[in-house]
Write a structure and sequence with these properties.
This protein has 5 helices and 4 strands. The chain is mainly alpha-helical. It has 2 domains: 167 residues, Helix Hairpins (Orthogonal Bundle), CATH 1.10.287; 69 residues, no CATH class.
Amino acid sequence: MLETIEKLLILQDRDKQIHRVQTGLAHIEPERNGLKTKTAETQAELEQARHRVKEIESRRKDLELEVEAKKQLIERYSNQQLQTRKNEEYRALAHEIDLCKEAIFKIENQEIEFMEQAEATQKDVAALTKALNEGKSLADNQIAQLGTREEALQKELAELEANRQELSTAVEDAARDRYERLARSKGDNAVVGVQHGVCGGCHMRLPPQVLVTCQAQQELVTCINCGRILYYTRDMDLAAVD
């Protein structure tokens, strides 16, 4: 194999490793944010449930005050009944007392409903509190693992990039420049093999003259269809036959 091709393949392999590490690093922050968001959502649900409990309790206390006010009215009307000697006025006061008692009955039923709602919401609070504590503990552990992974990947990336610089310098300028341009447009497969007369990049059939020049391994050959740098080894044809 042409020495320049060997160097380019090594450089390309290093670029693939760098891309792999960069992709891994790129995924870490979204994962971290996702864990934090999930915890924040559970926290928000818990706060809403706690707010509902307070709201229900506040409305229940308002009903208690209403009941107390109605009882005071009943007491006042009863005292007025004792003081009046007019039957019509007595009956009117009795009617008002009945209305207050009906109102108290309805209010007390509402109180029972609020108490049931409060009990159910308290259960929600307890369940959400448990979920938050467990979720936060799990998230904290996963975030710590992500931090460790991130640190390891950053270290690996620094080493790969330093090594890439050395590998890049070892390639002659013209070949390196051609490779860099192809890598920017073609991605990880700028240098590809040839099997049975087909380009390993675009999978198009190559003219006989291109194949002969590639097999001679005397110069860099590019695919006339996609522009990728081509290389050939006998192992490729043997593998295809197998």
